[in-house]
Structures are given as structure tokens and as C-alpha cells.
Design a protein that fits this description.
This protein has helices at about 5-30, 35-60, 60-65, 65-90, 95-120. By secondary structure, it is mainly alpha-helical.
């Protein structure tokens, strides 16, 4: 599996662990106030990162592009800015709202870069010696 897929799956599973912990914490406490952080950590973090990782694993010619690594770092930065800010905003820190907005825009830029990669031409991949 290409390095970028490994990175996306590592990021995805960290989001899943934290997202599930948040879900359990909501379920056990009966206080569902952090529903947005839980939903988006699981959907933007676990699900979307796993789809990115799967796409690159199925398209090794795209995984080798420098832009793919830029896309990983931009998207992950967006998650790191957006999700903790959303969590603490939902807990009552309304002043964090602009940070959630900034993080969301960075996430969107990461998705737009992914669109550029999807529509870009594939680069030739040289097969390893001894493999068909
Ligand atoms: C241990 C596993 C999980 C637990 C205990 C859990 C728990 C919860 C709880 C308590 C809520 C609030 C429900 C409400 O107030 O209506 C919720 C909402 C939600 N969860 Fe989870 N969750 C888990 C896993 C997941 C996973 C894996 C995903 C996505 C891949 C997910 C996606 C969502 C979404 C999208 C919502 C919002 C639903 C809505 O808007 O009505 N959850 N979850
Ligand atoms: C930067 C990207 C995103 C932004 C800024 C965003 C923003 C929002 C907002 C403002 C809400 C309403 C929350 C509320 O009523 O309190 C929401 C709800 C929701 N979004 Fe997103 N969203 C994004 C991406 C996504 C993606 C990619 C998915 C699914 C793959 C998703 C699934 C949901 C779901 C299931 C809900 C209802 C759960 C809840 O009440 O929090 N969102 N989102």
C-alpha cells in the first residue's frame, strides 16, 4: 500500500478511536451536546480519510504525485483545526466559532485538491523487477 494510504488510514483510525470514545461518553452520560464533533470526527475523519486512503491504494499512479502529499497535509491540518475547536465550542466556548470556520475552509481546500488529483492525468508507474 502506498505511503499516503498508510498515512490516511493511520489518521482515520485515530479519528475513529476518539470519535467512538466521544460517542460512548455521550451515550453513557446521556448528554449529547458534542453530537457535531462526534459526527464530523467519524465522517470527515474516519470515513472520508479511509476513502482517500482507499482511492490512493487503488490508484498508485496518483499516490506518487507530490500534490497527493500536499492534499494529505492540508486536509489533516483542517481536521486538527476544525474538530477540537468544534468540540470545545459545543461545550460552550462560543468564541471558538471562527476557528471552526477556518478549519472547515482548510478541509474544503483539502477536498478541492483531491478533486484536482482525481481529474489529473495518471503518471506512469514502473513495475518492480520480477513482478508482472
Ligand atoms: C461506539 C460507537 C458509537 C457510539 C456509542 C455512538 C453514539 C452516538 C450518540 C449518543 C449520538 C447522539 C444521538 C442523538 O442525540 O440523536 C450519536 C450521533 C451520531 N453518530 Fe454516533 N456513535 C458511535 C459510532 C459512530 C460512528 C462509527 C459513526 C460514523 C461513521 C457515527 C455517526 C454519528 C452521526 C452522523 C450522528 C448524528 C446523527 C444525527 O444527526 O441524528 N457514530 N452517536
Ligand atoms: C467542512 C465540512 C463540513 C462542514 C463545515 C459541515 C457543517 C455542518 C453543520 C453546520 C451542520 C449542522 C449542525 C447543527 O445543526 O448543529 C452539520 C451537520 C451534519 N453534517 Fe456536516 N459539515 C461538513 C462535512 C460533512 C460531511 C463530509 C459529512 C458526511 C460525510 C457530514 C455529515 C453531517 C451530518 C450527518 C450532520 C447531522 C449531525 C449533526 O447534527 O451534527 N458533514 N454539518
Amino acid at each position: 500500500m502506498p505511503q499516503i494510504s498508510q498515512l490516511f488510514f493511520k489518521t482515520a483510525v485515530i479519528c475513529l478511536i476518539v470519535g467512538l470514545a466521544m460517542g460512548l461518553q455521550m451515550g453513557i452520560s446521556g448528554n449529547h451536546i458534542v453530537i457535531g464533533a462526534h459526527a464530523h470526527l467519524n465522517l470527515l475523519g474516519w470515513v472520508t480519510c479511509a476513502i482517500f486512503g482507499g482511492y490512493y491504494a487503488l490508484n498508485p499512479s496518483k499516490a506518487g504525485k507530490k500534490l497527493a502529499m500536499v492534499q494529505y497535509f492540508v486536509y489533516t491540518l483542517g481536521l486538527i483545526v476544525m474538530l477540537p475547536a468544534l468540540y470545545f465550542m459545543e461545550l460552550g466556548n462560543r468564541q471558538l466559532e471562527p476557528l471552526v470556520g477556518i478549519g472547515s475552509i482548510i478541509v474544503l481546500v483539502g477536498v478541492l485538491l483531491f478533486a484536482v488529483i482525481i481529474f489529473s492525468r495518471a503518471i506512469a508507474v514502473v513495475p518492480e523487477a520480477g513482478r508482472a
